[in-house]
């Protein structure tokens, strides 16, 4: 049984994000990039399923420019058995990613897509769901626990009200939440071995996918810095201040 | 939490300056690339931050304890060591035939610096084990490698170096531990060793002690010293463990710093029950050790750099947020206090730390790169040159950082003021940890003697000439850049090496006249002079590279490269003149310390 794991290259979670002066996006030049942390969790889960003998192959897939190869190398070091690089230098919208992943899913005859629940760059939280819709298969998002048994997966989901347990028929899409597992440390021998595994290259066109253009980024602005507090002298001043802000 | 060693700086030194990727042209490193090196450093960074750093203060506060039977350590130590071993880090630089990853020594050193900065007390066991395995890679027989080295590279057994004895530290020729030949070709070992790091613990299945001892009837002095493998548990023919081997822990030493690494007084063969295996030829013990000790000494220098780097980065963060005082020009008592980094004197302390730390890091990585050249370059001449340069630079790489990066740790405490003097902040611990480095692996006094008494004059000054040639080339290149600041620094360095050369000739003449005690009386001062000169050279190279990179640099990199130029300016203007004055003093063959009557003290 094959699992696909989608891995996205994003600005490292330790980096303090800076918006470009012209508002066209965030600065990525010379900034440390790494695998989306939720995708690391997805990778780890896939590796654990493989170690338990529940799946036999893990195909890591990324969409993006030449540098994305590094992200695939990391996935291979984690334990992916194969890596596919969908080369695309442009902006990849969630729908584009979903179409591409769905195409790979079909082509490979996979039974599972394990994805991060969202990527920490645009926080869209859409791709996994859209893949399920495009393929018309089951989905279990925000997974906190995953069990695979034969043709079914049991997934404990983290929802606002607590935990929800779902049973889904395979093939299915599972998206990983933060507490699903703690990704392992990469081992140096695995890092070095990963260098020698060939990466399969393809394009959106090869996969018969057209890029979505429904969403346009109009402007990027930094969050407003918290304004300084004011000291008020009396309760009346406080009430007046709150009223002025429309809070009382 | 600041980055304890700035990744940007590691990248600059490894990639932009040392062009480490070019090592992959040599067969030993073929197939490797920058991405491999970056991934290895990334993996080390995560492990050091998550498994080593969090318990560093706790381990310092809870030093190892011996109850008469066993040594107790906090459990976090073993967990961190296991994570390092599982990650395959012990094999980083070992050849693949020995089960290693055959990565460059330079990369291994960069990785080691990250673990040192995070927690030297825990990391110490790993470095000792790596060095012990390395010794067998160089001098062990194939059987010894199979039996003892492999389990160390796999992390199942740990290793130690047993040189020092209570009465013989600097002067190893005076060691007394005995080795009596046994009929089966082995040796019965007996004697006492002192200061042995990692000499006892339950962290590994076995401990492989490398012991210097005298075979009965061997000549006095260093020529009579041989090297032996003495395991804690005897090893059966199939590699399984047998009975205890008569190595007894007499007690733990209670140290100022480096507390997590047990430091032991050991006795061997009290009951005639301790056997050892000879490594190499009889009488070659010290030679074998020294072969490995050169690398160990670069490691000591780098460890001093790493501990200072951690202090620098902590104190830099602190200085940006601690509010105190106002600029001298602001007489308004109601004006808001400024962050202390606004005060020139605090910036002095930070810039001085930066200049020492990044200068020391450049020196140690440069030496590590030479080790790689010597190991892997197919060109015999390049290998010979690398060897010669290492001969003269190793005592400097050990002593200069351990002297001046310790000074940097002192400054880090000073930046934090009273808070720096408390255990609520890590800077005092870093200072205590670093205070070992001028002492072990040959005291800095001994390094001075080694540099002036042996390395500088050997082969008619061949090593010094080679070094001076390299410095001259950098001076010429900086002058050719046409940049006014670089030219100023190049001129200052040219002056310094002229003075150092003249002084060396004067000292050499005294040696030739047989005035040996006078010649060596100020060897430590000579070491400082040469150290400052070499560091100024490395700063000039860094500044030139930064200047060239500036025009096309991103905004963040602009700051970084400008930082290199400021630190170079500081080092050349504030530090290098010290070397000039030392050169003048040395050239007078001053005999103050030589002729000082003891009664005058
Ligand atoms: C924490 C720690 C860990 C250590 N780990 C190990 C280890 O794992 N294995 C091991 O074998 N050893 C180890 N050592 C021992 C260490 O290498 C010695 O302490 C060191 O070599 C100095 O020896 P000593 O302490 O006997 O001092 P001494 O040799 O007595 O020196 C005292 C002072 O006299 C000076 N001096 C001595 N001889 C001369 C001379 N000829 N000319 C000028 N000055 C001189 C020295 O520079 C020093 O300042 C460790 C020491 C410490 C403190």
UniProtKB/TrEMBL annotation, chain A:
GO MF terms, alphabetically ordered: electron transfer activity
Domain of life, source organism: Bacteria
Family as reported in the entry's similarity comment: Belongs to the ETF beta-subunit/FixA family.
Cross-referenced Gene3D superfamilies: HUPs
Subunit structure: Heterodimer of an alpha and a beta subunit.
PANTHER family: ELECTRON TRANSFER FLAVOPROTEIN BETA-SUBUNIT, ELECTRON TRANSFER FLAVOPROTEIN SUBUNIT BETA
Electron transfer flavoprotein alpha/beta-subunit N-terminal domain residues: 23-211
One of the GO BP terms on file: carboxylic acid catabolic process
Names of the cofactor(s): AMP
Function description: The electron transfer flavoprotein serves as a specific electron acceptor for other dehydrogenases. It transfers the electrons to the main respiratory chain via ETF-ubiquinone oxidoreductase (ETF dehydrogenase).
Protein name per UniProt: Electron transfer flavoprotein subunit beta
Keywords: Electron transport, Transport
Source organism per UniProt: Stagnimonas aquatica
From TrEMBL, chain B:
The organism's place on the tree of life at top rank: Bacteria
Similarity comment: Belongs to the acyl-CoA dehydrogenase family.
Domain Acyl-CoA dehydrogenase/oxidase N-terminal span(s) in chain numbering: 40-155
Keywords (A to Z) from UniProt: FAD, Flavoprotein, Oxidoreductase
PROSITE patterns attached to this UniProt entry: ACYL_COA_DH_2 (PS00073)
Pfam families: Acyl-CoA_dh_1, Acyl-CoA_dh_C, Acyl-CoA_dh_M, Acyl-CoA_dh_N
Domain Acyl-CoA oxidase/dehydrogenase middle: 161-268
Protein name, entry field: Acyl-CoA dehydrogenase
GO MF annotations in UniProt: acyl-CoA dehydrogenase activity; flavin adenine dinucleotide binding
Record's keyword annotation contains Signal: no
Domain Acetyl-CoA dehydrogenase-like C-terminal per the UniProt entry, residue ranges: 468-597
Cofactor(s) for this UniProt protein: FAD
Gene source species: Stagnimonas aquatica
Keyword Transferase attributed: no
């Amino acid at each position: 049984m094959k699992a696909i794991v989608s891995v996205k290259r994003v600005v490292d979670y330790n980096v303090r994000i800076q918006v470009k002066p012209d508002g066209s996006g965030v600065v990525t030049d010379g900034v440390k990039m790494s695998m989306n942390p939720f995708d690391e969790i997805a990778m780890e889960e896939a590796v654990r399923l493989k170690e338990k003998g529940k799946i036999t192959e893990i195909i890591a897939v990324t969409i993006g420019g030449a540098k994305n190869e590094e992200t695939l190398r990391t996935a291979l070091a984690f334990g992916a058995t194969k890596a596919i690089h969908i080369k695309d230098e442009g902006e990849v919208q969630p729908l584009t990613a979903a179409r591409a992943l769905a195409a790979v899913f079909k082509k490979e005859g996979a039974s599972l897509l394990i994805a991060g629940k969202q990527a920490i760059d645009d926080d869209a939280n859409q791709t996994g769901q859209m893949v399920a819709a495009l393929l018309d298969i089951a989905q279990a998002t925000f997974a906190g626990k995953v069990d695979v048994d034969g043709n079914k997966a049991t997934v404990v989901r983290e929802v606002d009200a607590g935990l929800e347990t779902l049973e889904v028929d395979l093939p299915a899409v599972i998206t990983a939440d933060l507490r699903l597992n703690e990704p392992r440390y990469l081992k140096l021998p695995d890092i070095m071995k990963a260098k020698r595994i060939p990466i399969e290259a393809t394009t959106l066109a090869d996969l018969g996918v057209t890029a979505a253009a429904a969403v346009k980024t109009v402007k990027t602005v930094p969050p407003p810095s918290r304004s300084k507090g004011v000291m008020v002298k009396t309760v009346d001043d406080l009430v007046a201040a709150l009223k002025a802000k429309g809070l009382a | 939490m600041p980055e304890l060693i700035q990744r940007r700086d590691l990248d600059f030194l490894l990639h932009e300056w040392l062009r480490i990727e070019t090592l992959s042209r040599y067969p030993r490193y073929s197939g490797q690339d920058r991405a491999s090196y970056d991934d290895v450093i990334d993996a080390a960074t995560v492990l050091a931050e998550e498994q080593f750093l969090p318990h560093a203060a706790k381990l310092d506060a809870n030093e190892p304890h011996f109850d008469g039977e066993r040594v107790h350590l906090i459990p976090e130590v073993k967990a961190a060591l296991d994570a390092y071993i599982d990650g395959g880090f012990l094999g980083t630089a070992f050849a693949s035939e020995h089960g290693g990853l055959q990565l460059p020594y330079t990369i291994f050193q960069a990785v080691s610096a990250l673990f040192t900065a995070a927690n030297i007390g825990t990391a110490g066991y790993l470095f000792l084990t790596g060095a012990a395995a390395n010794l067998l890679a160089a001098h062990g027989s194939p059987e010894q490698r199979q039996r003892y080295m492999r389990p160390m590279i796999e992390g199942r057994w740990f290793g130690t170096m047993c040189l020092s004895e209570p009465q013989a530290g600097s002067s190893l020729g005076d060691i007394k531990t005995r080795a009596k030949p046994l009929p089966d070709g082995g040796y019965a070992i007996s004697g006492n060793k002192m200061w042995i790091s990692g000499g006892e613990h339950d962290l590994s299945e076995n401990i492989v002690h490398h012991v210097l001892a005298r075979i009965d009837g061997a000549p006095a002095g260093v020529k009579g010293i041989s090297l032996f493998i003495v395991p804690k548990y005897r090893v059966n023919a199939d590699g399984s463990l047998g009975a205890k081997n008569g190595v007894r822990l007499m007690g733990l030493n209670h140290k100022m710093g480096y507390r997590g690494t047990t430091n032991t007084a050991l006795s061997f063969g009290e009951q005639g029950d301790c056997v050892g295996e000879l490594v190499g030829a009889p009488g070659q013990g010290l030679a074998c050790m020294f072969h490995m000790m050169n690398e160990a000494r670069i490691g000591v220098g780098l460890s001093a750099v790493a501990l200072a780097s951690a202090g620098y980065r902590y104190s830099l963060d602190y200085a940006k947020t601690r509010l105190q005082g106002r600029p001298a020009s602001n007489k308004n008592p109601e004006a808001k206090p400024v962050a202390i980094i606004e005060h020139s004197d605090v910036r002095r302390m930070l810039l001085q730390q930066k200049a020492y730390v990044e200068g020391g890091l450049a020196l140690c990585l440069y030496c590590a790169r030479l080790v790689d050249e010597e190991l892997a370059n197919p060109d015999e001449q390049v290998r010979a040159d690398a060897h010669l340069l290492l001969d003269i630079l190793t005592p400097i790489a050990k002593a200069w950082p351990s002297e001046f990066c310790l000074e940097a740790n002192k400054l880090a405490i000073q930046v934090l003021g009273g808070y720096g003097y408390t255990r609520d902040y890590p800077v005092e611990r870093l200072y205590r940890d670093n205070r070992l480095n001028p002492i072990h692996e040959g005291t800095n006094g001994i390094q001075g003697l080694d540099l002036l008494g042996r390395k500088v004059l050997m082969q008619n000054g061949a090593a010094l000439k080679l070094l001076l040639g390299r410095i001259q080339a950098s001076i010429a290149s900086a002058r050719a850049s046409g940049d006014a600041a670089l030219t100023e620094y190049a001129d200052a360095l040219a002056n310094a090496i002229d003075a150092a050369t003249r002084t060396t000739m004067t000292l050499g003449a005294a040696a030739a006249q047989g005035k040996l005690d006078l010649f060596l009386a100020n060897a430590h001062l000579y070491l400082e002079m040469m150290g400052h000169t070499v560091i100024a050279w490395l700063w000039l190279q860094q500044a030139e590279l930064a200047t060239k990179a500036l025009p096309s640099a991103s905004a963040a990199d602009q700051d970084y490269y400008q930082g290199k130029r400021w630190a170079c300016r500081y080092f050349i203007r504030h530090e290098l003149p010290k070397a000039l004055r030392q050169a003048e003093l040395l050239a007078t063959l001053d005999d103050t310390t030589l002729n000082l009557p003891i009664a005058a003290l």
